[in-house]
Amino acid sequence: MGNSDETKYSLKVDESYIVYGQHLYRGVLSYLILGNDENLPSWYPAELFEVTDSLLPLEWYYQFYGYENSISAVWGYKELVTIESHHDDLLEREDKAIRIFLKRKKEIDEFSE
User: Fold this and answer.
1) Which superkingdom is the protein from (predicted)?
2) Which long-range contacts (CB under 8 A, 24 or more apart) does 95-99 make?
3) What residue spans of the chain are helical by DSSP H?
4) Alpha carbons 15 and 91: distance in angstroms, whole number
5) H helices, E strands: number in the chain
6) What end-to-end distance do the CA atoms of the chain give, in Å?
7) Domain limits of the chain?
8) How many CB atoms lie within 10 A of CB 113?
9) Tell me, what DSSP letter sits at residue 46?
10) Who's near 93: CB < 8 A, 6+ residues apart?
């Protein structure tokens, strides 16, 4: 999650993306999104985007972990927020976490239509 001015993202300018989760990592808000070059979720800094629809999906949860933690807050689908290992398992591309994500993605996509 070490982004710099040189970081290249698999995103397209003026493209719309659905947000599947949010976290506050070391004071930086990021969105969980499917980029253009992969079919797996990744975290992208919120500053790369313009919010065009402020409505959150119905079944989103929120947890504040405290500012002393590198991840101080998480918003999103149930497992992202309530299963402590799910966030890291997504980063590690664990099969179970990806299956859960894809299930929740389908639900969120239906809500967003």
Assistant:
1) Bacteria
2) 98/40, 98/41
3) 78-82, 86-91, 95-112
4) 23
5) 3, 5
6) 30
7) 21-112
8) 4
9) G
10) 40
Q: Tell me how far apart the alpha carbons of residues 72 and 90 are, in angstroms, rounded to a whole number.
A: 17
Residue 22 CA to residue 80 CA, distance in Å, equals: 9
Token duo for residue 89: 């398992």
Mean pLDDT of the chain: 90
Q: Which two tokens stand for residue 83?
A: 């299963």
Dihedral angle, C-alpha 71, 77, 82, 85, nearest 10 °: -60
CB contact set of 8 (below 8 Å; sequence gap of 6+) = none
The residue whose two tokens read 């975290």 is: 43
